[in-house]
Specification:
With 139 residues, this protein is mainly alpha-helical. It contains seven helices and no strands.
């Protein structure tokens, strides 16, 4: 007896195209984050690598092997780790953004919501482990 495919079953090629488009969108946002303060680069690159795993193997390979983005992606995927340098940079950027919001005299509720959000992210980020040293990974 032959089993008919379900009429509403998602087309794999369409899903692959969607994952690929999402990977490229995240990659583009990550690149914008390099030049725009307040827009994070690393989370978008992590998302780009995750989406590319399902939609664009070439992009994923390029990201994983990239000299700048690759180490952070590999550390996150293998250990759930964030480098101490990235943590300090994120904390400094959040502090700078909070200061800019304060200087721009945004409404109090808006400033408070932003500072609380950044504080929650900072606590979460600092609770992530530091990556294992290179020697431990090889040995």
């Amino acid at each position: 007896m032959k089993v008919k495919p379900v009429a509403n079953a998602p087309d794999r090629r369409r899903l692959r195209w969607l994952w690929s488009a999402l990977a490229w969108l995240c990659f583009g946002l990550g690149l914008l984050g390099v030049i725009l303060p307040g827009l994070p680069t690393t989370p978008f690159m992590l998302l780009a690598a995750a989406c590319a795993a399902k939609g664009s193997p070439r992009l994923r390979t390029w990201l994983i092997e990239h000299a700048v983005f690759g180490p952070a992606i590999r550390d996150w995927e293998t250990q759930g780790a964030v480098s101490r340098r990235a943590k300090w940079f994120a904390l400094g950027t959040m502090g700078l953004c909070a200061a800019v919001l304060w200087l721009l005299e945004v409404p109090g509720w808006s400033l408070a919501a932003a500072v609380v959000s950044m504080g929650v992210v900072a606590v979460w980020l600092w609770r992530r482990p530091d990556p294992a040293v290179a020697d431990a990974r090889q040995g």
